[in-house]
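User: Could you check the structure of this?
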Amino acid sequence: MSTTVNVAASTDIDFKLGLYRSQVALRQFEKRAYDLFLENLVKGTSHLSLGQEAIASGFAAAMRPTDWTFATYRGHAHTLARGVPMTPVLAELLGRTNGLMAGKGGSMHLTSVEHGVMGSYAIIGAHLPIACGAAWSAQYRGTDQVAVCFFGDGSTNIGAFHEALNFAAVWKLPVVFVCENNLWMEYTRTTEVTAVANPAADRASAYGLESIIVDGNDADAVYEVALAAITKAREGGGPSMIEAKTYRHGGHSRADPGKYRPDDEVAEWLAKDPIPRYHTRLLELGVPETKLVEIEKAVADEVELATEEAKAGAIPGEDLLMKDVWADGGSAWRN
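Assistant: Sure, the predicted C-alpha cells are below.
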C-alpha cells in the first residue's frame, strides 16, 4: 500500500518565492543550454530535465549545506539547486577552463564537493551504492549528514538499485533514495518492462521501507516529503524510498526528438508544468504579478551574464590532459 503525498508546504511567502526562483532559474538555464547546444557550443551530448524542476528545487530547500547530493547524468538542475553558480556549470558544458572541472567533465559529470554535489553519474544506477558509502561514513563518524540519491525509473531494474536498498535498510543508513519517474527509461516505456506499476515505491516494502509516492511536479509537496525523509534519516531513523512522478518535456537527450511518445501524453503532462502551476499558486496567495516578473527578469539577467562569462573562458590546453588523472595531480612521477 503506497502513501501518496500531495500537500501544501509552509505558507511563508518568502520561502515560496525562493522555491519559485529556483525553479525558474533551472528552467531558464537549461533552455539556454539547449540553445547553445544548437549553436554547437555545448561539447558532447546533454540530458535536460525541463519539466522536472520541482524535484531538484524541493529537495535542495529541505537539505542542509553539509548534506550530499548524488545525481544522474541529468544533473544540471540538482547541481544548480544546491547553490553552484551558473557560470562554472555553463562553462563546463562548453568545455572551457573556467568550468566546474576545467572543462574536462562536461554535462554528465558535474561535481562540486564544496556545495555537497558529489557527482553526476553516467552509468545507470552506479551511484546508489556510492551514496550508501557516503551515508555509512556519516554514520561511522557520528555526523548528522544525509545522502540524497536521485535516479531515473530505469535504474529500478538495475541490480545496484536492489543491492543499495538492501544495504541501506540493513544498516539503517542516513540516505534518501529519490526515483524521478518520468515514465520513460530512455526510449522505452517503463511499465512495458517492469513487473509493477510504480517501479520504486512498489518495491520499497521488500526492504522494509514505506512506499511513498509524491507529485514530482508540485514543489511544495516535494519539499514536505523531502523534509520528512531527510529529518528521519538525520535522526537515525534510516533510509527512505521516494518515487516522484514527473515528466521530461523533451527527449532522452539533445539528439532525441522524443517522437515515440504519444502526443496526447505529452500534452497532458505539459499542462502539469510545475512552473506555471507554482506561478498560479503564488498569485492565489496574494503575491503580485509584478513580483514574479521581477524574479523572472533577475534570473534572465543572471543567465545572460553566465553565458557571456562562460563563452569568455579559454579552451583547455595540453597542460590539463594529465591533471587529476593520478593521485598527485600529474604524471611527472612516471617519467
